Amino acid sequence: MGYPKKEAAGPDPQAPLFLLLGYSQSFYLPKRPRVADNAHMPNMSTNSANHGIPLSQPNISKLEEEMVLEVLRSGRLSIGPMQERFEELVAQRCGTTHAIACSSGTSGLHMILIALGIGPGDEVITTPFSFIASSNAILYVGATPVFVDICPTSLNAHPGKIEQAITPRTKAILAVEAFGNPRHMDTYAKIAAKNEIPLIEDSCEALGTVYRGQRAGAFGRAGVFGFYPNKQITTGEGGMIVTNDDRLADTCRSLRNQGRAVTGKGSVAAGSGAGSWLHHDRLGFNYRMSEINAAIGVAQMMRLDELIQGRNDAADLYIERLLDIPELILPTVDDDCTIMSWFVFVVRLAAGYTREERDRVIAGLRIHDIGAGDYFPCIHLQPIYQRALGLPEGSFPIAESVSQRTLALPFYAGITKQDVDIVAQTLELMVSRENLSRRN
After folding, report:
1. Which CATH number belongs to the domain containing residue 230 in this structure?
2. What is the extent of the structural domain holding 417?
3. pTM beyond cutoff 0.85
4. Tens-place pLDDT, residues 178-234
5. Do the strands 144-147 and 123-126 form a parallel or antiparallel pair, or are they unpaired?
6. What are the residue numbers of the active site?
């Protein structure tokens, strides 16, 4: 929008809005009890009627409770039938031969990189606009993340930039479906095949998405889902690797279980001493998922279509309510995405707004008991990556411009139209306040 930079620090986010904006004393925002100090965190699981409007909350039914009780009563709390059932449900949904449950999406990425033999001296091309775990996993194995700028509409890595970044040291492309958007995944797969390198699909934000007939997680050599409480489904904590590669699957099953030898879906291999619980073939980790977590996952997978529809309904409410606000850029979904599985609902302030203005809008929403977040800060500008790679600000101008203006709004299956209206009304007022301060 080309607004000039302003000199003042901006108005106090606690200033009375009805006075700043010229409303009468009769104007008011609906009052709610105060939210907790961590209302901006994505694991808010409290009831919005009692604690404001959280940024996210899991959708837990009686079925999840019953499945957990079934495990508790069974006495089998780890490495049991519930994990296998959960794996089968995810593999069926993704159309893959294997699914390997693990402790988190991060641990899944770590194991895939190890299983592919990626290590020191290798490069992995990825996006700077993601949750930091996607790049951390590359550092875990001693490889170097090679960032490329993003597409300004999908917010995923720009395919042309990926092709330009490939060198003899490139050993994989680690692509992320930002906020659940699958655009370009088929193109990444073609680039990877052309250059004979594996595509690792970070689908932690995209369970259930279908793009051009292909299900999220199945575009590359392996995909990973995450089940943190703000995701489409949750297990509390947890993740899942999906793949059609038999050898990679068995390696990851071994890695998650302290390096024990495995056959099939995770049983300890028999013969030559490998049948012993204390026999270890490789350096492994405790990246297992408990039966209790898996039980929640089974119930959530049984309800996946319902949960995805609830999130689509929430997205439709926001789009209808926010579409005509010129200061906002709404998320876009490619027509070829036949099922969009929304992770979060992230809007952007229009070009010309600053990070400081965005941050004041977020602060204003939180003050009015509405959860909000700055999804995502650019990874290459995080302190640890400044020390590790030293990439200066301006290295990825599109990602940086987007990052300083993004704003995550409360989003979950079951959010009410009333709450969406309150969020939208408050957001409009906060943006109007910033516009007003520019004229002063």
Report:
1. 3.40.640.10
2. 17-58+304-439
3. yes
4. 999 999 999 999 999 999 999 999 999 999 999 999 999 999 999 999 999 999 999
5. parallel
6. 231
